Amino acid sequence: MIFPAARHEVPFWHGRERVPAALVLPRTPGPHPLVLVGGAAGQAGDSGVDPVGEWSGALLAAGLAVCSWRRPGGADAGLDPSRRADDHAREVLAAAARASLVPGVDARRVAVVGWGVGGPGAVRAAAFGATVGAVLVVGAPVAEARVLATLSAVSAPLLLLIGELDDRAPAADAARAARRVLVAAGHPDHEVAVVRGADRDLRVRASHGLGGLVDGRFRFGDLPRGLARLLAEWIADRLRGTDEVPSFPPPDVPEPAWAPAPSDLVVDLRDPGPRVGPPVPVRQSRRRLSD
Fold it and tell me: Is residue 47 part of a domain?
């Protein structure tokens, strides 16, 4: 039987601003790992389309709780990109602290998803937030020097996806630069991949063939088939590695009917015991058996 997911309203404070947020929990027994996706309008996807609505089913099917929010457009207007990333990182950590208070959420297993221009903030939250256990960055401007510098400080498992048709920088160059930084930093668990035929929002041409590539994005584009399940499984696998091994009390073993006395267990090493003669040669034993 499939049960519907449970939805909770979890507004949180970011500075002086009260940000509305929603938390969706699977109906399976918890506690559930937490996935955070959100930000200013358009940060979840530069096109303004929230990608979580398209693959939240895959996240819930993997046993993951999803917390999403969206601030009003222009909430961080006027900030330079570096300060905008810092502001978004603090917002992500505030959302994590609020969502972790809901029963059924495992506060020790948290993943952050940075989609589009929300990627730099997600990377900073993973670099400076002790609660982040995995980070997924999709379609972010990773070729920028400020983003590459922050990547070197990330120690949590990292998956970085770049669209092949991203017009901000050649995908191969961006992937090569990100790999170089992560390898030089000694990152233990990272993957950088280029999605063939995808735009900057990681969408491909729609199956009906309508809609061309405009400003680096496909009109009426779709997420590649199977991508949602792949991303959900990657997050679940990385967060599952922090599970604790369950402990069980030892079973009640009845006392034996007879137990040796302590004196019977003492061995006098001074007494060599009966001497054993030399072993019988093999030939001699065979001769005796034949006789």
Answer: yes
Q: 28 is in which domain, residue-wise?
A: 6-240
Pair of tokens at residue 150 = 């922050």
pLDDT single digits (tens) 52-77 = 566 778 888 899 999 988 765 545 55
Q: How many domains does the chain have?
A: 1
Of residues 61, 33, 15, the one with CA closest to residue 229: 61
Name the E strands within 131-221: 132-138, 158-163, 190-195, 213-214, 217-218
CA–CA distance, 147 with 129 (Å, rounded to integer): 16
Per the prediction, the chain carries an average pLDDT of 76
Contact 20, 41 (CB under 8 A): no
Beta carbons of 22 and 7 less than 8 angstroms apart: yes
In-domain check, residue 164? yes
pLDDT per residue as tens digits for the range 182-232: 999 999 999 999 988 888 777 777 665 555 555 555 555 667 778 888 899
pLDDT band at 103 (very low <50, low <70, confident <90, very high): very high
Do the domain assignments include residue 1?
A: no
pLDDT at site 43: 41
- Is residue 13's pLDDT more than 60? yes
With H, G, I as helix, E, B as strand and everything else as coil, classify residue 181.
helix
Q: Has residue 280 been placed in a domain?
A: no
Residue 65 sits in a domain of what CATH number? 3.40.50.1820
| CA-closest candidate to residue 160, choices 136, 143, 183 | 136
Residue 73's closest CA among 49, 51, 43? 43
**Bridge partners, 66 (sequence order):** 24, 35
Secondary structure class of 172 (helix, strand, coil)? helix
Separation between Cα atoms, residue 133 and residue 129, nearest integer Å: 9
Nearest by Cα to 159 from 131, 198, 187, 121: 187
